[in-house]
Every structure is written in C-alpha cells, then in structure tokens.
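During the second half of the funding period, the structural biology subgroup turned its attention to how the target accommodates small molecules. The most pressing case was zinc ion, which had performed well in the primary screen but for which no bound structure existed. We therefore specified the complex as follows and requested a full 3D prediction, including the ligand pose.
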Amino acid sequence: MPPVTALVGATVVAIDGGAPIRDAVVLVQGERILQVGPSASVAVPAGARVVPMQGKWLLPGLMNMHVHFGLKLPGAAGAELVNETDGEEALRMADNARRSLLAGVTTVRLTAEDHGIDFMLKRAIARGQAIGPRIESAGELIVPTGGHGSLEADGPAEFSKVAREQIKRGATWIKIAISGGISDSHGSISAAPMTDAELSTIIEVAHRNGVKVTAHNGSSEAALQALKFGIDCFEHGYHLNDEVLSKMKAQGVWLVPTIVVSQPGAYEFYRKIGSPDWYLERVASTGKDHWAMLQKAIRMGINVALGTDQFPFEPNGGTTATVAEAELYVKAGMTPLQALQAATIQPARMLGLDKEVGRIVPGQYADIVAVSADPTRDIAALRTLDFVMKGGAIYRDDAHPEPVAR
Ligand SMILES: [Zn+2]
C-alpha cells in the first residue's frame, strides 16, 4: 500500500454548495483522495505523513480552459521568438507549465500549440520528466486559408484530414477559428469565412471520434452557423448577440470567456510585451462588448468554464491572470461560489473528467490547493493561494517549503 498523506485541520470548501467541512482530515493515498471528513470522524492512520493545514481553506485545484504554453503575441516579446526552434519552444512551454502548476492550476486545456509539442509535453509530465498541470489539448488551431491560425485547410476533405491528424496525435479537442481575432492585422472579427460544408464536416469528424469542438469566435453570424452544426464551446465570444446566447443556453454550449484579455487589468501585460498601438486599440474597442456579453451570459445561466488566453500565472493587478479572471466573473454577476465552480467542477464537466478531477471527494485525483480565507465569501481569497498538491504530490507549500516535490 502506498503511504498516506493527511492534510489536517483545514476547512474544506463545499464546492457544490452547502456547509464546508471544518477541522477536516483529507487522506490522500498515491495519486488519489482516500477519505474526507471532520477530524471527529476520520482517523489519521499510523505512519501517515501529517501536513498541518490549520487556518487554511482547501479547494479543488484550479482548472484553466484556455491556455497556450507556447503563446507568442505581436510586439517586442513575440518578435524575439520568431526564430525559436521546436526544441527551444518545448523547453519554454515546460517552464510555463511548471509555473502554471505552482500558481495553483492543476488542469489546463491547451487551445492551440505548435507542431505537436503539446502532446510531447503532456507525455513528459505524465512520465514525471517535466512538472506541470494535467493537459487536455486541441493540438493545432485549424482555420480556412487566411484565417486566425496557422494550420490552414480548405474544403470538407482537407478539414477532415487535418482534424483526424490532430486526433491521431492525441487531441481530445478540436479548435477552429470561425472568425477573425484581436491579434489579426487583416480580416474582420465579425466575418464568417467557413462554408457550411467545411464547418459541418469538421464537427462531424470530431464527434465521431469522441472529441469536442471549440471555436475561436467573435462573430454572431459565425456563431449561429456553428450552433446549427452542434459546436460544443465558444472561446472569448466578444460580440455574441442575444440570439446566439439564447441558443447557447438551449443547447448547453460552453463559454470560455477569457475576459481578462480585454479588460483594463491586462493593459500592464500588453505594455510589458511591447504591443503595438493598433493592437491596444482593438483590445479597448472589444472590451466593452465583451464585458456586456459576459454579464448577459452569466445572467442567463450559460455554462461558463474559466479560461484566460494568457499564461495562467501571468501577473495581473497584483495577482495571476487565473485569479483575476475569477474575480472578473464575480464583478460581472457570479457569486463567489459560482466563480469557484467555473474554475473547478464546471471545466471538469466540460472536459468529461468530472469523475476524475474537480472535487475533493474520495476516488478523485488529489488535486488540491489552499488559501487563507473563505473564497466563497470573497473570491479575492484566491490571491492568498500558497499550497498546491497535484496527484497526491505537494508541489508548493509556502508554510513548509522544504519537502516539496518541485
Ligand atoms: Zn487563445
């Protein structure tokens, strides 16, 4: 039997609502949670490694559903990466994966990476050769020629082929761009350049392989077209109108808002990376629509899964992009508990992994983070995150820095 670790004395947040477990004992064996309950009813077995957690609140590891570990954007920082080799990119992505995990993000969905490096990194993390979150990946971003991405295809046959290639490499999602993006220097965010035949075919091919499809999208016209063919998820949703939002609600389609990229907190980031003026202007003009769309989506009860489109650990207003994103959800109308769910059980459900991750219950992977105040009262408690366990291994423990696994 693998040794048991006991997290003792914390309050376990009731992520599904209800009363938290105070003075809790969380027993972890191997990669999984063995038992959870108040100390009066859960005994710490002899020989267990005891980690004192008094004064802490435990919640499931955070999940970030829109991440690019190899992110390059226009501007000076991006220009330095123009001649980056795949080997260099793999090492840079591994560093970003490690920093994401240490920021409390134990699962990510990668929504466009280069040349299959994401799948190599995922295998390296699974083998213990690199440190990082659990990875679900969409592989490369598939677009019609001239679209917002690099893997171009035209006509249903090519769309089928490139989608199947990504799935063969290990993609558990397919990502397409059905409109332009903020970072494009040509094309319009509102255009819908894919044909019905292309769009319906790629969604059918993915679904026949048990793979979901998400779309980078800022256009209502393109959104309605994709909804007709059973799209599973939209990224950003900058300019989505009421008709689109109602159909999303009716069809249970997911929204990954990445609201953090268009709001003022991100300007510090854009200045740091040396973004050109035209880019900052596009961000500002998009921000107002994006915010109004998010408020409406929350009011309508559309499925929201947290995603940032920035590195999960990217500094933002004194915290990380992941925490800033959750704070913005509360500002836009969620309760703190709903925002926590958007960062845990909702992404788990979206990924179809809700039996494995997203809750602190027996049988699930022991992906657990700790904060110093009740995050269901004030979402800003996430700013105090200082403990990260993934798969039963402690990667960060600021109170006891010695024995961590990193
Ligand atoms: Zn993105």
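Two results from this model are relevant to the next phase. The chain has a mean pLDDT of 93. The CA atoms of residues 164 and 203 lie 11 Å apart.
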